[in-house]
Design a protein that fits this description.
alpha+beta, 6 strands, 5 helices, globular
Length: 150
């Protein structure tokens, strides 16, 4: 995991990014990245705004830090369902590393959309993921290490 800053109308927005692709056909080789995405779905499963059909799929996602990248993996199923429900421009079951402007066409990279939702869920703690209850230790450590030291 790493910080991602992008210019938006004269100011900078902060988001969290992954270092490797996660999900279907993804690299899935960095535990903190996989845990971050798995944790997102566990958080979203408990939100009132999440539709019941998605909650059921999201609750199946384990906090294991691993993903097979296959269609039958619970994380891949959650990502696919989520991308479809948002009409995301790339419904591929994968969370890719955000690059450049942070957009796929006119839509933000999927990883940035996930971070924006966490920011809405936990506005008092954002962007300090380590301050959100239940944050996996590896995600908390990655977030703390990404904070600039002066």
């Amino acid at each position: 995991m790493k910080a991602y800053l992008h210019a938006d109308g004269g100011h900078f927005d902060f988001q969290w990014n992954v270092d490797c692709s996660v999900g279907k056909g993804g690299q899935n080789n960095l535990r903190a990245d996989v845990l971050y995405i798995q944790w997102y779905y566990r958080l979203a499963a408990e939100q009132a705004e999440t539709p019941p059909d998605r909650k059921a799929v999201y609750r199946e996602v384990p906090l294991s830090g691993s993903c097979t990248g296959r269609d039958d993996d619970p994380l891949v199923r959650a990502i696919m369902m989520h991308q479809r429900s948002l009409n995301h421009p790339q419904v591929d079951g994968r969370v890719s590393v955000a690059t450049g402007s942070g957009k796929v066409g006119t839509t933000a990279f999927f990883v940035l959309r996930l971070g924006a939702r966490i920011a809405r869920m936990y506005p008092e703690q954002w962007p300090r993921l380590d301050k959100i209850p239940g944050c996996p230790p590896e995600v908390a450590q990655a977030a703390r290490q990404a904070v600039p030291q002066f």
